[in-house]
Amino acid sequence: MSLPILIIGAGGHGRVLADLAFCLGRQVLGFLDRDAQLHGRVIDGIKVLGGDECLADYPADAVSLVNGIGSIAKSDLRREVYIRLRGLGYRFETLCHPGATVGRSVTFESGVQVMAGSIVQNGSRIGENVILNTGVILEHDCVVGAHTHLASGAAVCGGVRIGANCHIGAGAVIVQGLAVGDGVLVAAGAVVVKDVPSGTRVAGVPARRMEQK
Known about the structure:
The chain is mainly beta and 213 residues long. The chain folds into 2 domains: 83 residues, 3-Layer(aba) Sandwich (Rossmann fold), CATH 3.40.50.20; 110 residues, Hexapeptide repeat proteins (UDP N-Acetylglucosamine Acyltransferase, domain 1, 3 Solenoid), CATH 2.160.10.10. Helix content is 11%, strand content 28%. The strands form 4 sheets. It has an 8-stranded mixed beta sheet, covered by helices on one side. Strand 3 and strand 4 form a beta hairpin. It is globular. The model has no long low-confidence stretch (mean pLDDT 95).
């Protein structure tokens, strides 16, 4: 039996996930958001119930959570909220858009979000709290580490290993068989043609190391 859903975050990403949940026939109880100015508002027909304190009204065995906090290059908030609420016993729902194509042997851990138009081919393994955003292509036998975001239109060729806490920018391409370490930023539109060490920021065609600011 599917539990009703609370969406953490009432911004753009959260709104898209609410729409996805409705596409899947799921009941959405409301948004939770730390911005007090949003509390009590109705967004896309869904009420912002309050902040995290509202979870006291919803036991962990009575609801599923959806992480509606978007992920940008330097933001750890999405990961931190996920880890904290998992530690309190809450379960994060995995959502896969009916307009996505997913191979039979693909495995998802908890909290994965696969958005419209994405393609995930056989043998790929996706870690917890990962976003595969609109139109992502993930070819066969790829591995994506926890809390990583593949932004809209990113294309990852076969056998690529991407670490945890990465941001792969919109329209970026990673060629086959490469290893991308933990905490890597690949800028939008970059073409990665060689392994990327952990903690590195790369951009351009072909992708080269960016100067740290």
